[in-house]
Amino acid sequence: MVILVFILTVFAVYFLVKFIKGAIKGAFLLFDAFFAFSIGAVISHLYISKVIAEGPWAIFFWDLLFACLAAFVYYILLFFIRRKSLLIGKILNAICSFVNAFIVYILLSMMVTKEPFLLFLKNTGANIIFNFLIMALISYYIYRQREDWFIEREMEFDGEDDEYDCMIEFVKKED
């Protein structure tokens, strides 16, 4: 019985770690979409939903609909900017990746230590630089993940799925 409880506990911890890892990765990759979603919900609630609907559920429905539309339009614009000008698209992707890493890192740090930066060094300036270095490394990983995602979407859009591997290798050789 003790062995069964131990095995079940190990599996529960394993799946919890996998879930938390996926949730954190999702937070890092999709925070800008969440931001666009939130802005869309606020603008919709203030200027559109209260005018076209009555009742809390109807207003909530229109807020949710316009918020999803805002996130969708954000990614469509980002996708087409990237298709029209690869350099501008990569710069926007890098900026979004760093902002995502910065905000999620600060939020996680504040949840753990109630301070915006984790304390690695005694010198405050060096500690801030070290934390930004960690954020830069995280944002580079996010940047690579987002680039791969955009390349995959471009191949689906063009209908050239067989060239996906060649394109990823080409992008990796550029860096």
Describe the structure.
It is a single chain. This protein folds into two domains: 29-84, no CATH class; 85-175, no CATH class. Helix content is 88%, strand content 0%. It has helices spanning 2-52, 56-84, 86-113, 124-158, 164-174. α1 crosses α3 (86-113) and α3 packs across α4.
Largest sheet: none
* Helix/sheet category: mainly alpha
Mean pLDDT: 82
Radius of gyration: 21 Å
- The oligomeric state is single chain
What is the helix fraction of residues, given as a range?
Answer: over 70%
Instruction: Report strand %.
Output: under 5%
Q: What would the principal axes of the Cα set say about the shape?
A: globular
Number of domains: 2
What is the helix tally? Answer: 5
Separation of termini?
54 Å
- Helix/strand order, N-terminal first: HHHHH
Detail the poorly predicted runs.
Answer: none
Number of strands: 0
SSE layout:
Blueprint: H1 2-52, H2 56-84, H3 86-113, H4 124-158, H5 164-174
Helix pairs in contact: 1-2, 1-3, 2-3, 3-4
The gist of it:
The protein is built from five helices and no strands.
Which structural traits does this protein have?
2 domains, globular, mainly alpha, about 180 residues
